Amino acid sequence: MSRPQPTVDPSVYYVADHLDAVLAAGEDLGRLVLPPHGGAPAAAREITERARALELVIVARALQARLRCQELRNADPRFRPMVDLFIGGTARLLDVIEEFGDASRADFATGDDLVAYLRERAVVAADAAAPQSFAALRIGPAFRIAGEIELGPLMDMCASFLDALEFHYELYQGAPASAAQAAA
After folding, report:
1. pTM of whole model > 0.90?
2. Cα(149)–Cα(124) distance, rounded to whole angstroms?
3. Which tens digit of pLDDT belongs to each residue from 80-99?
4. CA-CA 20 to 30 A from 27: which of 20, 53, 85, 137?
5. Distances from the Cα of 129 to the Cαs of 40, 142, 174, in angstroms?
């Protein structure tokens, strides 16, 4: 027997949707593998542009979640501490959004160079002259979104927030909680 659901403020669903989109884009970004340096430049450029697009999705959705968090803060005061943590953890995105959306800034800073972009995002070490010619590069948790926030901690923060919302509001009642429950 399920217990009756209290009325859930729409801001909860908006925040959850944006957090879920950040997680999905972050997972897609983490699956990208850049071909070995010196390989096909067109393939490297295509993957880099895909990384930039996913990075932009993450920034846009995280900023939208921040906006909706203000509504959630007012709707349910019990979530104020978590909202404050999320807002504080994503504050750097507000500082860089104007610059991040300006392609000329990125082109000026990196000369539209793949290695410079990867160095700015911590995929290539700052002291490395270039990536090894035989090694494919993976985007990992240290990848810096907008050059500021590491992907891993951002994903952890979003996942924890989404889990708390789901636990408290039972947002996804109809969905099985695990693969074991789905099989049963």
Report:
1. no
2. 16
3. 999 999 999 999 998 887 77
4. 85
5. 19, 19, 52
